[in-house]
Amino acid sequence: MMSEQVYLDLCRHILHNGQDKSDRTGTGTRSVFGHQMRFDLRNGFPLLTTKKVPFRLIWSELLWFIRGDTNIRFLLENNNNIWNEWAFEAWVTSDEYEGPDMTDFGLRRLSDENFAEIYDQQMAEFKRRILTDEEFAAKYGELGNVYGKQWRAWKTTEGETIDQLKNVIESIKNNPDSRRHIVTAWNPEDVPGNMALPPCHTMFQFYVHDGRLSCQLYQRSGDTFLGVPFNIASYALLTHLVAHECGLEPGEFVHTLGDAHIYHNHFEQVEKQLARAPGPLPAIKLQAPEKSIFDLLIEDVTIQDYDPHPGIKAPVAV
Fold first, then answer.
1. Is 223 annotated in some ligand binding site?
2. Using one digit for the tens of pLDDT, what is the confidence trace for 211-252?
3. Which residues catalyse the reaction (predicted)?
4. Is 120 annotated as a binding residue?
5. Is 246 known to be catalytic?
6. CB of 309 within 8 A of CB of 50?
7. What is the CATH number of domain 2-68+153-304?
8. Taking a C-beta distance cutoff of 8 angstroms, is the pair 203, 183 a contact?
């Protein structure tokens, strides 16, 4: 339970001590700059219990990254909708789109029920076409050089590619005491125009000690209520998987945040969550322990003994 408490303490800290700021989405945030949380993975898997967090969405997104995929089709095939809005925005702002005006759909659907219904219809049609039309999916399901591309096929000035994830695993196996076990998603050349969304979790580093693998993530920007619980679980899971691949046990996940913020329209939900008592943390189960991390399927990783409080809905700022 102590692992989850550091997250709840961050939420309280932002609410009580944060600075109110404007933001890219127009929603407004309360934020702090520079915060670190530590999760000892020996004490359980840090999937929040004070609200239900959908593990399958976390795992399918992480698997998408590990595969080096950057098209939402794989996510939709696994009923994962968390990247839809960024692909949808590219579609509705294209010359080929002839449907209803979707300008500022992220905010308008929160305040206009009639528009929200129209938006839902257009999104459903968009998803249908991504899943059934390969040409459409290739053009409008593609998010550009986001995480998976940078992890698995970083493009060099020589036109070659670097598989950062594969290289760091080999480095951990062959030179465990190295201080260079680093994967970065922040590519200054691609950030301005070749990514649907510049990476929020920008760089992670592994550390080996006493047969255990630890991971530290630097995250430039964290939506503390909606996004950060996903990030905690995703990188804790990545630590488990890389540790297993390297014949190590998981150690700590260290989460370092730049701008840690709560959106103004999430305050009520955060207060509701803070009123709840944390429960015992669940455990990760590898259903196919003989498989390489690069060969895993959705069904190969599951969560055990997860008994959270009910989920708390909140709008996503796009």
1. yes
2. 999 999 999 999 999 999 999 999 999 999 999 999 999 999
3. 200
4. no
5. no
6. yes
7. 3.30.572.10
8. yes
